[in-house]
Amino acid sequence: MCGIVGILGTAEVAPHIxxxxxxxxxxxxxxxxxxxxxxxxxxxxxxEGKLRNLRNSLAEAPLSGRSGIGHTRWATHGAPTxxxxxxxxxxxxxxxxxxxIENYRELGDEVTGAGIVLQSETDTEIIAHLITLxxxxxxxxxxxxxxxxxxxxxxxxxxxxxxxxxxxLIGARHGPPLAVGHGDGxxxxxxxxxxxxxxxxxxxxxEDGDLAVLTRQGAEIYDAGGKPVQRPAQQSVASAFRVxxxxxxxxxxxxxxxxxxxxxxxxxxxxxxANDRIAMPEMPVDFATLERLTICACGTAYIAGLxxxxxxxxxxxxxxxxxxxxxxxxxxxxxxxxxxxxxxxxSGETADTLAALxxxxxAGQTIGALVNxxxxxIARGADxxxxxxxGPEIGVASTxxxxxxxxxxxxxxxxxxxxxxxxxxxxxxxxxxxxxEVPRHMLDAFRQEEKIKTIAQGLTKVRDILFxxxxxxxxxxxxxxxxxxxxxxxxxxxxxxxxxxHGPIALIDQTVPVIFLAPDDDLYEKTVSNMAxxxxxxxxxxxxxxxxxxxxxxxxIESSIELPDADPFVMPIVxxxxxxxxxxxxxxxxxxxxxxxxNLAKSVTVE
Length: 607
Ligand code: M6R
Known about the structure:
By secondary structure, the protein is α/β, with parallel strands linked by helices. It has 20 helices and 27 strands. 5-amino-5-deoxy-1-O-phosphono-D-mannitol (M6R) is lined by residues 298-301, 345-347, 350, 353, 396-398, 486, 600, 603-604.
């Protein structure tokens, strides 16, 4: 999940590499570094922490050269120090790497056995030495890289510069994505088309196992068997437009407030709002006869899938198997013939989700991808791509992508229900109308912000927080806890409210706030029974519900957040705003790095 970029340019490349790294920082921000070739010699600058530290070090000591590689790191092997920052160099090569080399120990022993003293704790440095040993044995750069790649186990995307070869850049891909960019007398490598967008829109995506040999005249690509292959160049629609925060303090809060608009865009794509009808693109499976649906995703995208499971099963009577992709991929799940598997991912690059997709593909499933990035690996591996139109999501915590995923999934549920005959036209119209009202309800939900700030301030004084809910409010409880954990570093857990008595109730005392997601739906009475159990034990209850319901509990709850009167079907989309604002403001009070919380990355391209 690091970001890599390489440029064979016609002018100084370091400033362009830094600009490209800024567009890749969402992949990791533990450290950053650049190496260039000047007069055939490798020179580099590296800095711990965010890219601005590298910019400062380049300002003090600029790097010259028309060929270069750069890296922004999410640490795997080795602490996030300057010494472990990429590029890793030897007298003959400079290497940047995204991924993990699983057999790095045995390869490392071999390298140290050859008398080499390692300078870092990384697996990447070992790759640099292995290539160097092959070069020392007389191989060409291409042959040295090819021989080294054969020995690596794990996942990698690499970009490599060679001392004395100003017109050569080699890239290789096994797992994580890597794209070749075509310029005018220039050539580029990048983790994705977004990073290369300021330089070119002509992109060739490398396939798994490919090795690309770049000169300023073009690229030769070889497949995993070493055979030359043609990979078509395509016009990328990735935008180089660097969204800014406008008047907001953080991208996250800007993205929270963008939700009514981007949900509108998403719904416009999947429905005919003028006629209250669903208008899905042509689907590669027949929902009328589909027996089961498989959904796989990670993190917040998984939680969106969990909400959809409740919807598909209740509204469309379609059984759903859902799993976290990292578990699914190794579970050797038996899958029915002609099944449909849906993969949900904002980035479209999450390694575990992609691996689960490939597993399902191998098992003959038809593949759907619900993604925000339509040029991503997950989108490219799918039979049908369902875009969510959230626009670039920069904050590491997923907010608008989550609610747009829910909006698109809700439309798919209505479509499936109609195809299966579990709803009639009148019900379709009613449900579509309820979806169309989501943006308006969200605007209402925003009005609770000041009250949410007060509650958030209280949360900064506690260590543990519980989120509880039933039905579709259960996944939302998971989402509330996940958001709070990742942003404020407080310990939060989401539970099904009915599960409380089976263990977590032991945690209840005056120090643990318990946040109940209890919208006025058919499970409301059940949820508030659990709430009464908490209140009876002196627990601190925060109730998220409609105004009338909150009024019934005055005196027995510590505080509350009002929900708009949305239809229960769409309530998880609307209520997401409450838990997002709560997590955001708690993090602001805690003084954490809201848009780039510690240890995280926006796109998780390692397993
Ligand atoms: O890009 P993806 O949607 O596949 O990412 C999945 C998770 O990594 C992501 O949702 C993560 O959990 C977010 N940090 C949650 O806010």
